[in-house]
Amino acid sequence: MNSSTPAKSLAKPISTAGKQLRVVRPEADNESGHSEQTHSTAPQSFSRESMVHARAVTKSYRRHKTSVAVLKGVDFSAEQGKMTAIVGQSGSGKSTLLHLLGTLDRPDSGEIHFANQRIDNLPARKRDAFRNHQLGMIFQFYHLLPELTLLENVIAPAMIGQSILSYFRNRSSIMKRAKELAELVGLSHRLHHKPSQLSGGEMQRTAIARALITDPKLLLADEPTGNLDQESGQSILQLLRNLNQESGLTIVMVTHDENIAMQCDALVRLKGGKVERLK
Ligand code: ADP
Ligand code: MG
Q1: How far apart are CA 10 and CA 12, in angstroms?
Q2: What does the pLDDT look like over 148-203, one tens digit per residue?
Q3: How many Cβ atoms are within 10 Å of 148's Cβ, its own excluded?
Q4: CA–CA separation, 91 vs 110, rounded Å?
Q5: CA distance 72 to 59
Q6: Beta-strand (E) ranges in 158-265?
Q7: At what angle are helices 164-184 and 200-212 packed, to 10 degrees?
Q8: Within 6 Å (CB) of ligand 1, which residues are found?
Q9: Segment 47-87, tens digit of pLDDT
Q10: pLDDT of the residue at 19
């Protein structure tokens, strides 16, 4: 990378509660592929407003000697700037679909597109760079690193893909951004706490701040309120809603809480290996 390039301020600020938080992204190594654009291979049916789009996706898992078909031709689209919920019974394939959208796994057939880029067939390095730069992910059990403080957990993704040299060069802007995000999620008084010293709601807030450190365009959330009491769950949902409405973050959220699902802009159900649109 160009060693003299300073940390970059992205034009779009995240505004919160009356104040503007400027998104600062540490300069990525060129080799991370962030600036590389794969030429458009979007199918005809791809909507201009789609942020992520799955077409005719199938996925099976082998169990013992049999193959279990989980997704049997899924068409799914999440609009840019919207909050989309995916519901369905336990085992219906919600996490499987989310993992495919997040390039954590590959479909057996079908295609997945992100904006105008096909992402299901990216080579490993481009796929990892894509995921690190464009996507944020949060999970039911937070997946925080127990030995790290809140602040260290939040900055961790910003260190991935950077040389030690470039990390140290960008360290102060990363730290500043991590503190802004901790404030955004209401945890600036917990910066040096470890996950074991945080409540479930606070751990999920930390995970949200961590997911935002790379300024993703799309947040994928797998049952983010599934391990929380109703009040904490609702306040996490409100936080996600604010991020969506105030900064335009596109969110796809798996939930089996109907009350939460109904508060989203769009709602689909996975059933029998297919997606049906409910809202
Ligand atoms: P949901 O999130 O809707 O509860 P999942 O997507 O986790 O469902 O799982 C769908 C089905 O696929 C389940 O029957 C599950 O046991 C199976 N499954 C999920 N991941 C794997 C895997 N890595 N290997 C084998 N089977 C799996
Ligand atoms: Mg699941």
Answers
A1: 6
A2: 999 999 999 988 777 888 878 888 999 999 999 999 999 999 999 999 999 999 99
A3: 15
A4: 21
A5: 7
A6: 218-222, 250-254
A7: 130
A8: 61, 63, 70, 88, 90-96
A9: 558 999 999 999 999 988 899 999 999 999 999 999 999 99
A10: 35
| Selection from 137, 170, 140, 141 nearest residue 155 by Cα | 170
- C-alpha of residue 68 to centroid of ligand 1, in Å: 9
Alpha-carbon gap, residue 219 to 34, rounded angstroms: 17
Atom of ligand 1 nearest to the CA of 96: 6
Write the CB contacts of 276 (distance below 8 Å, at least 6 apart in sequence).
268, 269
8 A C-beta contact, residue 174 and residue 213: yes
Mean pLDDT computed over every residue of the chain? 85
In angstroms, the Cα distances linking 103 to 75, 132, 136 are 16, 11, 12
- Give long-range contacts, CB 8 A cutoff, 24+ apart: 159-167: 160/132, 161/28, 161/29, 161/32, 161/128, 161/129, 161/132, 162/26, 162/28, 162/29, 163/29, 165/3, 166/1, 166/3, 166/26, 166/27, 166/29, 167/26
Residue with tokens 């209401």: 186
Name which residue sits closest to atom 15 of ligand 1, judged by CA. 91
Test site for ligand 1: of 95, 222, 271, most ligand atoms within 8 A of the Cβ: 95
Structure tokens at 49: 């407003």
Distance of CA 93 from the midpoint of ligand 2 (Å): 7
Burial of 240 (C-beta count, 10 Å sphere; 0-12/13-18/19+):
buried
